[in-house]
Every structure is written in C-alpha cells, then in structure tokens.
Design brief:
Oligomer: single chain
Mean pLDDT: 82
Helix content: over 70%
Number of strands: 0
Distance between the termini: 73 Å
Strand content: under 5%
Number of domains: 1
Radius of gyration: 25 Å
Structural class: mainly alpha
Order of helices and strands: HHHHHHH
Number of helices: 7
Low-confidence stretches: 1-11
Largest sheet: none
Length: about 230
Amino acid sequence: MKHTERHRAHRIGWLRAAVLGANDGIVSTASLIVGVAAANAPRSGILITGIAGLVAGAMSMAAGEYVSVSSQSDTESADLARERHELATDREHEHAELAEIYVKRGLDPVLAMEVAKQLMEKDALGAHARDELGITEELSARPVQAALASAATFAVGAAMPLLVVTIVPQEALVASVSASSLAFLAVLGALAARAGGAPVLKPTVRVALWGALAMVITALVGSLFGAMT
C-alpha cells in the first residue's frame, strides 16, 4: 500500500508574506477608517483616507518585504560562496565536518563517513547547504515573490473595509467596519491555519484580538480629536 505524506514546509515563505500582507491590510485600513469616522469626517474624506492607506501600505509592504528577504538572500549567497570555496580548497575537512553532523544526529561514525562520502559525490554543495547551513530549495529566500505576495494581499485585505464604507450608512460606519473587519480577520486566521496545517482556533483568536485592539485605540484617538474640533 502506497503511503503519501503531505508536508507544508514549502509554503512557509509565501504563506508568511501573504498572511502578513492581508492581516496588515485589514487592520491598518480598518483602523484608519474607524479613527477618521470616529472624528466625524465626511464619507468622502473617509474613502480618500482608506484608499491612500491602501496604496501607501501596499507599496510599503512590498518594499519592506523585498529589502528584508533580499538581506536573507544575500546572507545565504555569501554562506554558499564560502562553502563552495571550502569544498574546493579543503574537501577532506568538509567531508569530516559533514560526517560529524550525521554522527550527532545518531548515525554510527563509520556509516556517517560513508553517507557523507556518497552525498558529496552526488552534490557536495547541496549536501552542505542542506545539512550544515540549513538552506533548502523549499525554504530559500525569494525577495520578489515575498514582495509581490505582501503587496497583493495587503491590497486585497485593505479593500474589504473600504467596500464596507461604500455600502453602509454614515452613522453605522464605525460599528460596521469594526465588526466586518474582525470577521475578515477571523476568516484569514482560519484559512492561514488550514493552509499551514495548524489548529484553527488559536490563530483565529490571535488575529481577531490584535485587530480589535488596533481599532479600539484608533477609534478612541479619533473620538478625542473629533471632540476637540
């Protein structure tokens, strides 16, 4: 009987960027809208604020992810270059170093030396990247992918509270945007947990709680400034 295991580690890079983007899109835009609405701004002003927040936030997320993940990619490239040089200049030491890693993982020293030898004959750099440096194809840094995922999902997340602004009455904006955004965040947390194979309840509660805190604080600030004008 064929046994097929389904692992989700290959999703970590894009899933992290996508969840972060969508979560920030919902929370930051909803908080802006709630804060401005609580200050008794007109609907047009609220929409302009929300749209400006969407565009600025998406660009900021893309730039931030690209710079951050590029730094990780640069570090990986530098480590691989150093490892490539060491393999070219002192292969015997690298063989012993790889074997020692396998010994620490539980292999017999003789077997560890043989495993290291065979792996290095096939792909020495790949073996050292994976087992010494922890760099794999699935988890390697991809700056462009992370930037695009963050920007796109931020825009999608930000569009949700903006849509609510266009369809609910002015007097119900704060309550409607807050409630719907918390629902969006809960769904996002559940979907992210399912995609990553994690339990659903904890991520759902976590994202909803932080979103509620952000909106409460901005609503209070908006009300304060609204009362002063």
